[in-house]
Amino acid sequence: MSTTTRTGGQLLADALVAQGVTQAFCVPGESYLDLLDGLYANSDRIALTTCRFEAGAVNMAEAHGKLTGRPGVALVTRGPGACHAAIGVHVAYQDSTPLILIVGQIPFAETDRETFQEVDYRRMFGSVAKWVTQIDDAARIPELMAHAFDVATSGRPGPVVIAISEEMQKARVAVPDIGPAEVAPASPSPAALDKMLALLDAAERPLVVLGGSRWSAETRRIIRAFCVARDLPVAVAFRRQSLYDCTLPNFAGDLGVGADAGLVARAKQADLILAIGTRIGEPVSQGYTLFDMAGQSGQKIVHIHPDQAEIGRVYRPALGITAEINAFAEALAKLPAPQGAAKWSAWTREVHAARVKQAEAPDYAGPLNLARELQALEKILPADTIFTCDAGNFATWPNRFMHMTAEQEFLGPTNGAMGYAVPAAIGAKITFPERTVIGLVGDGGFLMTGQEIATAFQDGVAPVILVFNNGMYGTIRMYQERAYPGRVSGTKLTNPDFTKFIEAFGGHGAVVEKDGELVPAFQRAVASGKPAVIEIRMNPEQVTNRATIEELRRQGGGKH
I need a labelling partner for 96 at 20 to 30 A (CA). Which of 142, 240, 242, 409 fits? Predict the structure, then answer.
């Protein structure tokens, strides 16, 4: 037992150090001044990034968690600060990202008086976090902080919220720090792997679907080698493009929002779904219509997931395997190599051919063919480029026409949160400053958190943000035109000059309006060494990459 007394604020900072934290993101508040002072004392071990908006801080931390596999850490103040942070917690929850959110809290002696900025965080975050706790006794800081990190990374990873009462941070106690526990991950049994291979050998039209979080580079390599050796067609779950080399001849495409109809049809035809890491949630299952929930159709599902509660939650599998994804890959690497050619190779070629066909750039009307421009851009990008992607119809363009390679990363919110891409790009660039980071965002999403670009200047990092500008909330307009053709209400946007916006910060701005401009604009942005915004002026009539507004109106019945 340590005989040195420390304040609760110092203990909290030291607990972060003990858990291996090297980076945190915050918007400061008077409710956790003692923790901030503790971080000052640990500034040689934990870098603290000061952000402009709590949602931005949590999204930066979430991106850090996605990229490292370790919990991202964000600190916000009570009441409004916690409310602003909630969207980032929801992103981490639905994306299965390990995250620690520390919230300054009111003095506990004032609880239940509806004092200034009082919120019950257990009730507020209870449905969007893995665990919510409040520390009122400084002596329990090491215990509760260690448990929080354990919860965030165990089973299905996710966010943990820790409220820290104000006066607790000032109390002095003598307790030792607690480091991470060494826990052997859940691994598949040999019998389960044998049954998985038997089901695979019996299949004629298998389809692999990859998803989930905390995949190491080695896990990606092993699972890629497993699928290539057996010539299995591989699809990725919604916004999980970085889990597979999308340039390989067995890549099937992405099962998510805006999925290709050809892939959806073939997923229904598959007689075996090998779901690795994915929850098989609503976007992947196309609104729970893609697979047979009761398992009566003859299509079998093998579901590998780190949380047993997710296996069979919606779809009853022929085989469920509870295993941490990296432990599963380690076991997979020990399996014997397949003998002979796969009997489903013709099926794999058919599935891949459909992907190749749908990735061909059509002849869109107007001076800018965005599909061809994106494909030209991907050819010049570094092999380890990191993409962060916002929510919106614009996102279906890179999903359809671009191909992530083995070492590239693609981060996006599976809960469809707008305002994610800019702070996530900054968080990614802070995490890996030597790598090229590109944020993909619509004009609507950019103006939700675009001011967070100030944090990039403050921390000296230079992501490149591509703003897809069509002057509307494009996704909502798409649905609006289908449901109420020609009755435009609430979806038009008036935008600033995005070039002047970034130049006002001292950054680099550019506009792309026609073919041949995107690649040189991007190269100039990178060469500037500054945070950059490239505005891509899209044809507003081309509201999706598959339909114009007029075509949607006709689909909706032709009413104007």
Answer: 142
